[in-house]
Amino acid sequence: MLFAHDTQVALAAATALVNTGRAGREDLPDIAALDRFAQRWEWTGERTHDQAELEAVRALRPRLALLWQVDEDAAADLVNTLLREANALPQLVKHGGWDYHIHATRPDVPLADRMAVEAAMAVADVIRSQRLDRLRLCAADDCDDVHVDLSKNRSRRFCSQSCANRVNVAAYRTRLAHRRETSLAVATPPAPPIPGRAPPEPDVPAGSSPPTGRER
The domain containing residue 62 runs over which residues? Predict the structure, then answer.
């Protein structure tokens, strides 16, 4: 395991949040959608369930997205800013089915602030371990989503299996079409002579005499 379990969960939650607003789409169109997102990622603490909360979470997404785009120094500056703005104070807590892990905000802090701090704490671990390159953009040309490469050999290139399958199928079809074109070019015979028309005379090299009737 590259990171502690709670760090990996926090990275996955931040990734999912960023991807709700990529490439012009809006996957958090209303409060109900935010409620479903918070439930899926097991966000605890107080909620207001109002439009202001939704707007604050939406506004956080482009700030977190920068962590996938900037270099290590800039990422560290952004992490520090997010922690400072929320007055983060790391504490060991356990609740529900979770054993001890770190919360750096009180449960009554606004949801967007708690999301920002949890993402910042996770990325702080990534930076400290010199693995910021694990935060990647999807390699599919038609996808703008982000992901975290947690593979042992740093081999993950796509945000999802669907993107990987789509790119692999397209590449296979391209190779297959190329092989077919090559096979057709090799297998195509010369055009048959047209009935009633003499075959073309052979080319005579410069300086040579044309063949005589006998030589023909």
Answer: 5-135
CATH of the domain at 109: 1.10.3300.10
60 pLDDT exceeds 80?
Answer: yes
CA distance 38 to 146: 19
79 lies in a domain? yes
Query: pLDDT, tens digit, for every residue of 61-74?
Result: 999 999 999 999 99
Residue-level pLDDT at 214:
45
Q: What is the rounded CA–CA span in Å between residue 181 and residue 32?
A: 53
Strands (E), the chain: 91-93, 101-103, 135-137, 146-148
What's the CA gap between 69 and 48, in Å, rounded? Answer: 32
Based on its alpha-carbon atoms, the radius of gyration of the chain, rounded to whole angstroms, reads: 31
Residue 88 lies in a domain: yes
Cβ neighbours of residue 196 under 8 Å, at least 6 residues apart? none
Chain center to CA of 14: 13
Q: Nearest-5° angle of CA 202, CA 204, CA 207?
A: 175
Distance of alpha carbon 117 from alpha carbon 98, whole angstroms: 18
DSSP 3-state helix, strand, coil percentages of the chain (rounded to 5)?
50, 5, 45
pLDDT at 179: 78
Q: Is the pLDDT of residue 191 over 60?
A: yes
